[in-house]
Amino acid sequence: MRSGSKAMRSISAGPVLVAVIVCAVVVTTLVRIEDQKLLVVELAAIVIATLLAMKFGIADKVETSARHHPWIGRASIIVATLAVLSVLREDTFGLLMLATVLLYVTTCIGVTIQMGYAGLTNFSAAAFVGTGAYTAALLDARHLLPDPLILLSGGLVAVAIGSLLLLPVLRTRGHYAALITLAFGVMFNVFLDASDSLGGPQGLKVGGINLLGWDFSNDLHLFGYEFSFYVNYVLLASVVASLAMVLAAILDKSWIGIWLDAVRLDETTSAVFGLNIGRWKILAFTIGNFLAGISGAIYAKMAGFIAPNNFTLSDSLIIVSIVILGGIGNRWGVPPAALIVILLPEKLQFIQEYRLLLYAALVIGILVARPGGFLERRTRRFDLATT
Amino acid sequence: MMRVERKRTAHAIGCAGVISSALLLAGGASAKDTVKIAFVTPLTGALSPHGIGGRNSAETAVKVMNADPNTKYNYELVVLDDECKPNVAVQVVTKIAADRSIVAAVPHYCSTAAIATVEIFHRFKLPMVVWAAVLPDITYAQKFPEIHRVSGTLIGQNRVGAKFMKEQGYKTFVSFADSTDYGKSMNKYFTQFTQENGNNILGTFSVPPDQQDVSAELTKIKELNPQVIYFGGLTPLGARVRTQMDKLSIKAQFEGNSGVMGEAFINAVGPQLAEGALAFLDSPPLNKMPGGKMFMDAYKAAGYKEDPEVYGPFAYAATRLVMETIEKVGPDRAKITDALGNVKDAQSILGPITFDDHGQNITPLTTKYVVQDGKWVVWEDSEYASGNRKLVNLP
Amino acid sequence: MSTLAQHLLNGLMQGTIYGIVAMGFTIFFGVMNVIKFSHGDVLALGAFGSLSAVLSLQPLGLPPALQLLAAFAAAILLSGAIGALIARTLIMPLREAPPLNMLLMTMMVGTVLREGIRLFYPGGTNPQRYPELLPHGGFSVANVFVRYDGLILVFAGIASIALVHWVITRTRLGLAIRAVAEDSEVAQTMGIDFAKIIPVTFALGSLTAGFAGVLFGLYYSEINYGMGLLLAIIGFSAAIVGGLGNIWGAILGGYLFAGLQTLVVAAIPSLSDYKNVVAFVVVIMLMTWRPTGLLGEGESARV
């Protein structure tokens, strides 16, 4: 297969730039607007615009443009992020929400790798986030390690705990594997609640982050403007989420991604062709848990407080919902889905009470009508050299 | 997960301001600025009867204040739900603390929620007056100028309770508390005072507050055969313990604490099972409070169907105190914090309020209660005190 | 020793309820290869339905026996109907979908039911008091206290299991169900109406859940909107440990789980909340050792 012909009309970078700008504006306005009616109007506009975009192939144009100008795309995302942060610099709670969304994105990318790439059912994602969080809380209390290592440990401990499940997960298929992660999640929660040394139902307080001397709990003063201290956390979470996306991209576009696909689509055939199924499943499971653990550690330090109630089965189900809504296996579907699932209920107060009910109904709808999710995963294209 | 609040936009406040000033101009008064106070309470979940009673009482205080034409400001109560869960409380309090338009807060029925949010109030310098949570650490574990409380700490009720039980003639006890900081603190002071009175604690049990089945613990307790089972926790768990005690046919006197005081407990176990249960509350009974009748009248006039519950008067008093402070020093967080630090003999429906150097109200006295015919009755007024009825396990 | 016996008695009731729930899971799996995770929440729905029925009848001052009848009737009808509805509208149309989707969907359906109860039942977020309709008290035998209502409930539970077993093995309906479970295509060619049998099977399994919900309420005198979730996970575990598709396995699994819980609780009564931790760990270990359950399906796909 030859690489794409060079004798083509040049693809402009315009579409991707416009797309990034539109997204930045959307995110900023969603966070800033308080008026319920205005919000509903904006949401309706977004839905209509998205549907139109999909119908008229605008999404494809954006994608092609992004593919041909990867560095412009990435640079524009970075600039847009900084711009959004500047606009939101004093909105403390808005920044906290954004940071939370970004942490969910990280976890959900991890789960995408587990479920979307390798086909492993994981109903205990929240338990791994919780593992990272509690690790951070305990290490922090004893001042054993500097913060960067604490965050890393959150991920590593999650991997270690996850390795306990490796054998059961590998030996079982389908429903049985689902049950194992389910039982583990519930068990983890009960264990946290019952164990006094981990704070029990009262939970634990956690210190803030101090990265190489830069204390995250200080407000920033830049160019004469004041930035709420949560900006630090948003920046950190953005970096981590971006790294997660990049990691997922690398996995997906590499040999490993192809093998994971094979394992997911048909285990028996893959085994017949000599693939070591176990190894690839372990890899996916481990990476996913690592991401979940790190995001848990950051969350614990940002919120300053964690309790078993933060990491229940419902939270695992929300994570799975995000992954499915965005399009299972499509990493680009995760950020918008996370934004919808996490940010909206905060803003649309009249649905706050009903949010679990609405998500569940939404997911049922998706599973019935469009099982691929909003942004379905594209079939792998083997003819593109520039991916 | 993040939680509910009712907030109006600047737009709506502007409208309200215009409308109210138009109305007031008709009466010849000038327009008042609106000041926002937050009220944090468990509106959903098992503690909601207490939470809703508190909210209604606080809203009553605001209504009464706003009906007074001579006040400088118009008050708006922003009510938030902490679900009696520490992590939800943290999120909700972070939200109000970061919101500059909210100048003061009246938080928390649940001690577990309060102990988790104390630092947030301090960090964002939002002054607050706790209306119900009784855990001593909330005011005493640190000295933050923002933290105050009108309700008593659980030390007083346990001290009075232990002495009372000794006087009644009880000798053997088992302590059953929940595993939160609240339950642990209850157990600590109960144990300390009971032993000081020379009595014997046969065993101590601790379970998470939403554990469903306590038959395992109760079976063990049945084996220990105490005269009294002391319960240190909140109504939902207390109701379960009482109900399952009966199912296992355990004959012991149920000694409760302020956490089980209220209509909710009697409704949960039924008047028959509730009969004879004891509890101790750091407050004069409603009919002996200086403002008790006025409060109940105002509450009823405001049209609320739900019972204000035992801490309703405290919610009223705390909210009223905050508003009166704002009247004196204006809607500025720092000024309010300073003023609250100097509260001495402030008049309230509960009686005089004085905050000590940790912001703790030092005046409430402890009243002993017993359930009689489906109602909590002051001990001295009850048929148990007069000898017509007997508590369990007494000769 | 008598304390152990007391613990065992407490555990017997749990085991019966788990067994009933597990039986439902196993029947659904057998007949449609589906794990209907909303089963626990259907149980909760039945329990709440029965509570409404009893509460609305209470002002009439009917004798407890009649109220009891109304409670069971309401629960059975409600649960059975909802179970059949879910089968007809959601499960049957999606039966070709990957198993993960089906599992997820039934979990979400369960969430919808649970949140529905929480939001739309008056005071749904609080635990609700369940009236005492069974005789009070009990008797003591060798220092072990046996509750009358406990005895009645255990017998009722076992009777319901036996009844379902009888229906499945001794009636024509049961025969049809087993045929469809065995091989749905051949069953259809033999003239069994697939579209009718499936909802009926789900109705059967679900109405036992409703029944169990009432048992639960009568035993603890309390129900809450989240009661179904943990029961579903335990019931699912029990069904799996016993081997999906095997009714006796499900029941065995239920009692096994309760037995594990009882052991933990008897050993360290002051830390009884760990019982679920230990029980789940054992379940996970059992599944690692025997991936298709103790009395398993015997399927093998090793390469």
If you had to describe this structure to a student in words, what would you say it looks like?
The complex is a heterotrimer of chains A (387), B (395) and C (303). Chain A has 15 helices and six strands. Chain A is mainly α and 387 residues long. Chain A has a domain at 92-342: ABC transporter involved in vitamin B12 uptake, BtuC. In chain A, a hairpin with a 2-residue loop joins strand 4 (220-222) and strand 5. The longest helix of chain A is centred in the last third of the chain and has 27 residues, at 277-303. The two termini of chain A are 14 Å apart. Chain B has a four-stranded parallel beta sheet with strand order 7-6-8-9. The longest helix of chain B has 19 residues, at 48-66. With 303 residues, chain C is mostly helical. Chain C has one domain (8-229). Helices cover 72% and strands 4% of the residues of chain C. Chain C has a two-stranded antiparallel sheet with strand order 1-4. Chain C has a two-stranded antiparallel sheet with strand order 2-3. In chain C, strand 2 and strand 3 form a beta hairpin. Chain C starts with a helix and ends in a 14-residue tail after the last helix. Classes of the chains: A mainly alpha (387), B alpha/beta (395), C mainly alpha (303). Chain A binds chain C through residues 115, 119, 121, 165, 167-168, 171-176, 178-180, 182-184, 186-187, 190-191, 193-194, 267-268, 271-272, 313-314, 317, 320-321, 324, 353-354, 356-357, 359-361, 363-364, 367-368, 371, and chain C through 29, 35, 90, 93-94, 97, 99-101, 103-105, 107-109, 111-112, 115-116, 119, 229-230, 233, 236-237, 240, 244, 271, 273-274, 276-277, 280-281, 283-285, 287-288, 291-292, 301, 303.
Number of helices of chain A: 15
Q: What percent of the residues of chain A sit in helical stretches (DSSP H or I)?
A: 55-70%
Which structural class do the helices and strands of chain A define?
Answer: mainly alpha
> Got a strand count of chain A?
6
Shape of chain A: globular
List the helices and strands and how they pair.
The complex is a heterotrimer of chains A (387), B (395) and C (303).
Chain A: H1 14-32, H2 36-55, H3 58-68, H4 70-87, H5 92-117, H6 125-142, H7 147-171, H8 174-194, E1 204-205, E2 210-211, E3 214-215, E4 220-222, E5 225-227, H9 230-253, H10 255-265, H11 267-272, H12 277-303, E6 305-306, H13 313-325, H14 334-347, H15 355-369
Antiparallel strand pairs in A: 1-6, 2-3, 4-5
Helix pairs in contact in A: 1-3, 1-4, 5-9, 5-12, 5-13, 5-14, 6-7, 6-12, 7-8, 7-12, 9-10, 9-12, 10-12, 13-14, 13-15
Chain B: H1 10-27, E1 33-41, H2 48-66, E2 73-81, H3 86-98, E3 102-107, H4 111-123, E4 128-130, H5 137-140, E5 147-149, H6 154-168, E6 172-178, H7 181-196, E7 200-207, H8 215-224, E8 228-232, H9 235-247, E9 253-255, H10 263-274, E10 278-281, H11 292-301, H12 312-329, H13 333-341, E11 367-372, E12 375-378, H14 383-386
Helix pairs in contact in B: 2-12, 3-4, 6-7, 9-10, 12-13
Chain C: H1 2-32, H2 39-57, H3 64-91, H4 99-120, E1 128-129, E2 138-141, E3 144-147, H5 148-170, H6 172-182, H7 184-189, H8 194-220, E4 222-223, H9 227-242, H10 247-267, H11 275-289
Antiparallel strand pairs in C: 1-4, 2-3
Helix pairs in contact in C: 1-5, 1-6, 1-8, 1-9, 1-10, 2-3, 2-4, 2-8, 2-9, 3-8, 5-6, 5-8, 6-8, 9-10, 9-11, 10-11
